[in-house]
Design brief:
Elements: E1 2-6, E2 9-13, E3 19-22, E4 28-29, E5 35-36, H1 81-92, E6 93-97, E7 112-114, E8 117-120, E9 130-133, E10 138-147, E11 149-161, E12 166-174, E13 178-185, E14 189-196, E15 199-208, E16 212-220, E17 222-234, E18 245-252, E19 255-262, E20 268-278
Antiparallel strand pairs: 1-2, 2-3, 4-5, 6-20, 7-10, 8-9, 9-20, 10-19, 11-16, 11-20, 12-13, 12-19, 13-14, 14-15, 16-17, 17-18
Length: 283
């Protein structure tokens, strides 16, 4: 075995031509094969690959407290079930009218109001405010982009209807200036009747004057097979599977508006609240 120094690198030549390279420039080898460093010297510290001098070992972030310990496992992600529900509802909801800002027209109300119609705090159907149509020719308007399928729901209380007439309680505007109208006839136990452009196509016993009820409609556009379904449930109970009135033989291409109130010419009074227009389902 022989020893050679190449600049600052010590090269030890072993028998058979093999060589060992040492990064210690002061390494010396004696004739008897022993080795020693320079007086008082120690081997240099080795820094792990990828770690800055004085830094943490690779694969760690040094710990927030500088301890150099690997971080613990990340916390589990928060549950987003509630967020998903909110996003889904927001994605399908067209309008929600609660009147809880104390006005008939605005963010929680109609786009416009016609006749003697306003909000009241007297005997509200829900919350603190309720919309009231006080006579014939009084209603609130909702306008939206054309939809091919809608679910519409409203709390309603018919206060009075003239003994010789009927009351148009709710009107759905259709493309081409057509309408679907929900009427109440024959007080005090009103016959609920549905009209398409003024022509009745379904009726059933239903509206009881003075009772709080939930009126609901499902409309789907079609050519000769357009669907209209109507439910009426006392109070805020769940809607039954089978509608009170149903037709699947009409023709209309879409819905683009809603009139809530007494749109006809017969004297009547009614209250409305929690009006919902949705693309997917009843509330």
């Amino acid at each position: 075995m022989g020893f050679r120094r190449l600049g600052g690198v010590a090269l030890i030549v072993l028998a058979g031509g093999c060589a060992l390279v040492s990064g210690a420039a002061d390494l010396s080898v004696g004739d008897d094969g022993s080795s020693s460093g320079a007086s008082g010297s120690t081997p240099p510290a080795v820094t792990p690959p990828g770690a800055a001098e004085g830094g943490a070992p690779p694969g760690t972030d040094g710990g927030l407290d500088g301890s150099g310990q690997p971080p613990g496992p990340p916390p589990p992600p928060p549950s987003d079930a509630g967020l998903d529900a909110a996003v889904d509802a927001g994605a399908t909801r067209v309008r929600t009218l609660t009147f809880e800002d104390g006005t008939a027209v605005g963010a929680k109300g109609f786009d416009s109001v016609v006749g003697q119609a306003n909000v009241t705090t007297l005997s509200p159907l829900s919350g603190s405010y309720t919309f009231r149509a006080e006579k014939e020719g009084s209603w609130g308007n909702v306008v939206f982009a054309t939809e091919t399928e809608l679910w519409i729901s409203s709390l309603i209380r018919v206060e009075s209807v003239s003994a010789t007439g009927d009351a148009d309680l709710l009107t759905v505007g259709l493309e081409g200036s057509h309408t679907i109208v929900v009427q109440c006839e024959d007080p005090p136990n009103g016959l609920l009747e549905i009209e398409y452009d003024g022509t009745p196509f379904g009726s059933a016993p239903g509206v009881v004057s003075g009772n709080a009820e939930r009126l609901a409609l499902h409309l789907r556009a079609g050519n000769g097979n357009a669907l209209v379904e109507v439910w009426l449930v006392e109070g805020s109970g769940a809607h039954p599977v089978t509608p009170l009135i149903s037709s699947s033989t009409l023709t209309f291409t879409g819905m683009n508006g809603l009139r809530v109130g007494i749109t006809g010419t017969d004297n009547a009074k009614a209250r409305y609240d929690d009006i919902i227009v949705d693309r997917a389902a009843l509330p």
